[in-house]
């Protein structure tokens, strides 16, 4: 028996390793969850023993497991049980939305909340009015969270439950919209005003309930070839849930935790305890900490220098240049403490004004405490104009790019910012040419977790509807995939253990139903995953 017999050998495939040379192999050997060797057909026969299993790929393409480096599986898990999904795949008109909410309300007790999420008013007939929400709720409190998580709608009973009326002052960094003529609430709210409702509704969440939901979420996401997620804005209950799943051996996804700066005292507790980025193991690891000062372009709240264009929402500010959710000096202090404590800092910036705000914080951290290889990230980092691109390069910041927005929300970006602005929205061609690292992410469930939708948009520079996002910024299929593998793990300092298929790295692999690298670009969004392996173990599909 060979001294180092493999547990599993994949053979007869086109295995794109995504190593530095873009090597393609036909066979790969796995032992103890890691890649033992990669080579040509017959090269690995010496690693086969009596207990070795063989997986014949039948000529299929295999790639490194997908890395979604900014998403929210915890919030999705929390909503699976009691929230109604009103995303555009289910609801395509306002009438359908109101009818569905009315049906849900009819099945609830008179004091039970009706809560819904993933509303995309651009694809479902616009925002319902307060009167329509009141009718749909049938006397019950009703709350809807827009797909971006930055906009919410409530009916009169829901406002009453929280003691909010037309005279209630706006919370800091938030807003209740009022009718411009009557001054009455419109039902729509923005940013921290939304958080008031979310905190109340999610108050009953427990780590055990979240763990049950996360198990379902990850089993579902494995069908897209996803093997690693970085959970953005992870709160204390979510972090407890991950530890519970790890302890009970129920975790079938590698998780990077990005600790939420939104939860009072949480980041500070990590700093005080001396917990640094990298703490953990290959299943659950602390990646860094995040604050979210910028908002949503599709929801018309992200911070830009120039006002929004297109159809205004009743009650929105005029002119509307978006909003920021922190005072600059306050955020500088918070971020610097985390940076000095060895925690990788991530600041959300969407519009050009928001990105500049994030870079102000990052530059302050580096001036006070220089670190050469800091890898601080600007999250979402959508509108990267030439001056901002140059600033990103100078600072050495990572453009953590919300590529999922291109597919699901691209049409709304065009409508709210104008066609000309698409030239510098998610400009991956320019970022690659400038040498700026730009991993991609879905921000799920803001957008669909299927990575091949975003990869399609990156290569074709089109929104889901086919609307142009300016083809000047198109990239190749391999360049796009590297944003969801190699660059994803690099942005979390995990490139030594995963992201490419090389000896010694974790055997996280997706086997595809067609050759992603040679099919027509228009076909990329149709790619399916035949099998997903996590540490050499099948977690989805089979051959």
How would you describe this structure to a colleague?
β10, α3 (130-137) and β11 form a beta-alpha-beta unit. This protein has a 7-stranded parallel sheet. A 6-stranded mixed sheet has the order 3-2-7-21-22-23, with no helix packed on it. The chain has a 6-stranded mixed sheet with strand order 9-10-11-12-14-13, with helices on both faces. α9 (328-340) crosses α10. It has 16 helices and 23 strands. The longest helix is centred in the middle third of the chain and has 17 residues, at 352-368. It is an alpha/beta fold and 543 residues long.
Please sum up the structure shown:
With 543 residues, the chain is α/β, with parallel strands linked by helices. The protein has helices spanning 73-79, 94-106, 130-137, 156-161, 192-201, 207-221, 236-247, 266-273, 328-340, 352-368, 386-395, 404-417, 428-434, 451-460, 477-483, 486-490, and strands at 8-11, 14-16, 24-25, 27-31, 34-39, 53-56, 61-64, 66-71, 84-85, 114-119, 142-146, 151-154, 174-178, 185-191, 226-234, 254-260, 284-291, 345-349, 377-380, 398-401, 509-512, 529-534, 537-541. The strands form four sheets. The protein has a seven-stranded parallel beta sheet with strand order 8-15-16-17-18-19-20. Strands 3-2-7-21-22-23 form a six-stranded mixed beta sheet, with no helix packed on it.
């Amino acid at each position: 028996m060979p001294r180092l017999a493999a547990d599993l050998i994949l053979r007869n495939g086109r295995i794109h390793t995504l190593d530095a040379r873009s090597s393609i192999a036909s066979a790969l050997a796995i032992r103890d969850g890691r890649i033992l060797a990669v080579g040509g057909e017959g090269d690995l026969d010496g690693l086969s023993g009596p207990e070795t299993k063989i997986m014949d790929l039948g000529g299929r393409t295999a790639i490194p497991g997908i890395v979604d480096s900014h998403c929210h599986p915890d919030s999705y898990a929390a909503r699976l049980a009691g929230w109604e999904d009103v995303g555009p795949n289910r609801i395509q008109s306002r009438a359908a939305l109101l009818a569905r909410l009315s049906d849900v309300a009819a099945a609830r007790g008179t004091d039970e909340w009706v809560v819904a999420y993933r509303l995309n008013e651009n694809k479902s007939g616009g925002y319902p009015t307060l009167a329509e929400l009141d009718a749909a709720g049938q006397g019950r409190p009703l709350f809807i969270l827009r797909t971006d998580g930055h906009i919410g709608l409530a009916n009169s009973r829901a406002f009453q439950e929280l003691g909010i009326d037309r005279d209630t002052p706006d919370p800091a960094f938030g807003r209740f919209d009022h009718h411009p003529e009557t001054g009455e609430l419109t039902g729509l709210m923005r940013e921290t005003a939304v958080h008031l409702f979310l905190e109340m509704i999610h108050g009953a969440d427990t780590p055990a309930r979240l763990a049950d939901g996360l198990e379902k979420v990850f089993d579902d996401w494995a069908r897209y070839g996803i093997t690693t997620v970085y959970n953005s804005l992870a709160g204390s209950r979510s972090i407890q849930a991950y530890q519970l799943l790890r302890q009970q051996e129920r975790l079938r996804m590698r998780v990077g935790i990005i600790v939420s700066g939104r939860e009072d005292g949480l980041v500070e507790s990590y700093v005080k305890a001396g917990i640094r980025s990298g703490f953990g193991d290959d299943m659950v690891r602390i990646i860094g900490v995040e604050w979210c000062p910028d908002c949503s372009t599709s929801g018309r709240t992200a911070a830009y220098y120039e006002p929004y264009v297109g159809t205004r929402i009743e009650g929105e500010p005029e002119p509307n240049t978006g909003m920021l959710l922190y005072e600059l000096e306050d955020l500088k202090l918070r971020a610097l403490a985390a940076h000095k404590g060895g925690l990788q800092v991530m600041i959300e910036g969407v519009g050009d004004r928001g990105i500049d705000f994030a870079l102000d914080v990052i530059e302050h951290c580096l001036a006070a405490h220089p670190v050469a290889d800091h890898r601080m990230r600007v999250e979402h980092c959508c509108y990267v104009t030439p001056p901002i691109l140059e600033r990103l390069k100078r600072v050495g910041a990572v453009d953590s790019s919300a590529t999922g927005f291109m597919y699901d929300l691209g049409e709304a970006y065009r409508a709210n910012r104008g066609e000309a602005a698409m030239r510098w929205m998610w400009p991956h061609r320019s970022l690659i040419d400038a040498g700026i690292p730009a991993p991609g992410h879905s921000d799920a469930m803001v957008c669909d977790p299927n990575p091949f939708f975003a990869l399609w948009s990156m290569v074709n520079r089109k929104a889901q509807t086919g609307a142009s996002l300016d083809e000047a910024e198109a990239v190749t299929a391999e360049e796009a995939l590297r944003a969801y593998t190699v660059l994803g793990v690099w942005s979390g300092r995990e490139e030594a253990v995963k992201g490419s298929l090389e000896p010694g790295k974790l055997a996280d692999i997706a086997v595809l139903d067609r050759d992603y690298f040679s099919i027509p670009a228009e076909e990329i969004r149709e790619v399916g995953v035949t099998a997903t392996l996590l540490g050499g173990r099948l977690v989805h599909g089979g051959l």
